[in-house]
Amino acid sequence: MAPALLLVPAALASFVLAFGTGVEFVRFASLRPLLGGPPEPAGPEAPQGWLAALQDRGVLAPLAWDLGLLLLFVGQHSLMATETVKVWLSRYFGVLQRSLYVACTALALQLVMRCWEPVPRGPVLWAAQAEPWATWVPLLCFVLHAVAWLLIFSILLVFDYAELMGLKQVYYHVRGLGEPLALKSPRALRLFSHLRHPVCVELLTVLWVVPTLGTDRLLLALLLTLYLGLAHGLDQQDLCYLRAQLQRKLHLLSRPQEGGAQ
């Protein structure tokens, strides 16, 4: 039992890293563009037009760097999700396979956020600078971001969050209960095979609904939108299953209140 108990700190460390990275991503994707204001020009000619930007190394170099960071994240996130890599990781890391995937994803996302290069000299697709838009557009974006993040957290509660983070696998292993996925219904397994990103629409709202869409933000939004679109494959049966699970969990949450009222 002792070796099994050593798995618990590793799974908890992965969970803490992922949770902290999620909080940092909220700051990176929402708070910084909403509260930081429009990017300050780096020179008298900034921001430039699109044709001039294509010939400016001061714009192309940071864009290429940011693109490399995003491709690194997408590559890690996709490669480690393949069955071949999953089997290999399970062979050498056992029940920690999911925790390792979560930790590597968090580290890759941390690398993107900490090494991201803004492009203040690049062209701006849109910017709310004139009144009253400079006041009302950021406020509206803030409200939509808040709603999107609340929906994201709610959707994660509908799913098995502990299992997504790898904690449940370790808990089941320590208790000798087997693999959690083996206890899932065929409808749940079908859903998981189709859906890798359960918060696709909400993340798209966060990426695109900003008062100022500069060049580097446009790159971030375009690439992640393409990636989310390719990984999203829900059908009608999956949506019916999700609706049933949401109703079941809401019923379970309301039962203590009903019992207290009686």
UniProtKB/TrEMBL annotation:
User: Which keywords describe this protein according to UniProt?
Assistant: Membrane, Signal, Transmembrane, Transmembrane helix
Location relative to the cell: Nucleus inner membrane
Query: What residues form the membrane-spanning segments?
Result: 59-80, 92-113, 133-159
Q: How does it sit in the membrane?
A: Multi-pass membrane protein
The UniProt entry's GO CC annotations, sorted and at most eight, read: nuclear inner membrane
Q: Which domain of life is it from?
A: Eukaryota
InterPro entries per the record? Answer: Nurim-like
Q: Name where it mostly resides.
A: nucleus
Signal peptide range: 1-18
| Similarity comment text for this entry | Belongs to the nurim family.
The UniProt entry, under PANTHER family, shows: NURIM
| UniProt-recorded name of the protein | Nurim
* Species, as recorded: Myotis myotis
